[in-house]
Amino acid sequence: MERRARNGSHRRFSAFGTAGGVTLPDAVYRDLVSTLFTMAMPIMGFGVLYALVGTLIYLKWQDGLIATLTGTAIVVTVARVWLIKAYNAAGSTTQDVPALKAWERRYAFLTYIFALLLAALHIRALVAHEPLVHIATISLIFTFGAGIVSRNASRPRLCVTSLSLVVLPTAVAMMMHAMNEFEQHLHAEFFALQAFFLVTVALMSLQSVRHLYASSVEHLTTKHDLAKLARFDPLTGLPNRLLLRETFQANVQSSQTGEQMAIHYLDLDGFKAINDRYGHPAGDAMLREVARRLQLMIRTEDVACRLGGDEFLLLQCQVRHPDQADLLARRIIKQLSEPYLIDGIEMRITVSVGIAMAPEFGLELERLMAFADTALYRSKAKGKAQVHFCTVEDLHQSGLAVA
């Protein structure tokens, strides 16, 4: 069965997180989206601030529209907090990318609604010439903008749209308010200046968003690249011992009653001669081809690992009977013994396999690898292209013992 990619495919995102721009691995996208769903308290706190300002304005004016806007903002705040809890309950970043995109769209929709409610509150407050009320509502808008930039810079499109929805209607309304006739000296000029300040701060915030987003992408990409280097062999792309150990432990914890695991220890017969005759570049090309063939032969839940040199190890999970392990080992011997065409030259090797079964020989990976290596020694002693299961007799002769 063909093995599916473990690291996830790459998707294309622009500087604002949409198709057609910078290539982002799925793992990076997952991390960027996860930042949206980690800050329920700021959302709840800002909803409380809106409710307080709205309630005070209502008590002062007894305005039904203010009451409606305030009540709606409370409902939207509750929905935003509930969405975060639902996202985490659904598995957070363990969900597939299409599901994460759906959660992101829901988050963005509620954020946009809240931004419009903020703009509407301020626009309604401009109906009357009440400077203290204006200060309260415009302060909410500036606070919202600062929060959007600090919390959601990982999703630039969300920031741009949210700021536009709250700033542009507010700025237009303030300019229109400035055109009204009032007795105060420089009334129009100060309101126009305030509208200018609001737009200017929003534009500067968008520059901050661009910088923070680029920094986040670079940091997360580097983090995942380093994590990959720590868990994968740089020559073949196969998992290394660290990822093998993690997968083994995960399978030990999730294995069902009656299930076994088979540790296949592989050693290439004749590889040294290839290296000596054709050089290390040819040997490296052969190792990459061996890795490719191994990947094509195992299932998604199994792991093919390069230990170093010409030694490989397979972790075969969910084994019901040793015959399944024997069948896979013989397929491996057959496939890896097929000719290799490297730089136009046909080359041949074979492979010897030693197998240790778990839990028959314990559930400690290092000991199981040692037992499989012992079986490999017996296999090579029988000749090339052989498979041998570890037995108690092998362990006695080698001075090993089952834990």
Q: How would you describe the overall organization of this protein?
A:
Mean pLDDT is 85; it is low at 1-21. This protein is an alpha+beta fold and 403 residues long. It has two domains: 10-230, no CATH class; 241-398, Alpha-Beta Plaits, CATH 3.30.70.270. The radius of gyration is 32 Å and the shape is elongated. α6 runs antiparallel to α7 (187-231). It has helices at 26-34, 40-61, 64-89, 97-125, 131-152, 156-178, 187-231, 241-254, 271-278, 280-297, 322-336, 365-381, 392-398; strands at residues 10-13, 22-25, 260-269, 303-308, 311-319, 340-342, 345-347, 350-358, 387-389. The chain has 13 helices and nine strands. It starts with 9 loop residues before the first strand and ends in a 5-residue tail after the last helix. A hairpin with a 2-residue loop joins β4 and β5 (311-319). A five-stranded mixed beta sheet has the order 4-5-3-8-9. The chain has a two-stranded antiparallel sheet with strand order 1-2. It is 63% helix and 13% strand.
Write the layout of secondary structure elements.
Layout lengths: L9 E4 L8 E4 H9 L5 H22 L2 H26 L7 H29 L5 H22 L3 H23 L8 H45 L9 H14 L5 E10 L1 H8 L1 H18 L5 E6 L2 E9 L2 H15 L3 E3 L2 E3 L2 E9 L6 H17 L5 E3 L2 H7 L5
Parallel strand pairs: 8-9
Antiparallel strand pairs: 1-2, 3-5, 3-8, 4-5, 6-7
Helix pairs in contact: 1-4, 1-7, 2-3, 2-5, 3-4, 4-5, 4-6, 5-6, 5-7, 6-7, 9-10, 10-11
